[in-house]
Every structure is written in structure tokens, then in C-alpha cells.
Amino acid sequence: MPLDQSLGFQQVGFGMTTFQYPTDGGDLEPGKVYVWQIRKDIVTTVGTEELLSDIMAFKIKDFASTESDEAIWKTLHLLVLF
CB 43: neighbour CB atoms within 10 A? Predict the structure, then answer.
């Protein structure tokens, strides 16, 4: 999922099982939470079927922050559920 949701999903090619974060993708910032999702398009006899993974999240640790990690993850959990 790109930061600009109007861009759509990043194409990685047929049969790829890994993805390298692009060097022009911008720096990941400490203390921020990032999410990602995988979409697979399967061509069938009745058209293309779109499969979406669960939305996964990770946080870049901010060693200078005093904010509780638990509070951040509770907020993120609520955002993903709704």
C-alpha cells in the first residue's frame, strides 16, 4: 500500500516472494507505524479474482521517545479493526 493511496499497489512481477523497499520510497521515520498489504490477482475462466492479505503493521523504534508502545499498539489495533 503506497503512502499515496491513489497510486495503487506496487507491481513486483510473477512468482516473486520478496520485495525490497525502494530507495526512492522515502525514509522510514522512528516512532511511526507503517502498514503493508499484499494483493494477488488470479486470472480465472470467469475473469480476474483479487485476493488481499491481512493488513500487517510494524513500528520503527524511537529510542528518544517516552511514549508507551502498548498505547500505540492498542490505537493501531482499533484502526485496523474498523
Answer: 8
11 three-state secondary structure: coil
> For 21-45, what is each residue's pLDDT tens digit?
888 888 889 888 888 888 888 999 9
Residue 48 resides in a domain: yes
pTM score: 0.60
Query: DSSP for 26-64?
Result: -PPPTT-EEEE--EEEEEETTEEEEEEPPPEEEE---TT
Q: How many domains does the chain have?
A: 1
Dihedral Cα 54, 68, 71, 57, nearest 10 deg: -10
* Owning domain of residue 54: 30-82
Q: Does any domain span residue 72? A: yes
22 part of a folded domain: no
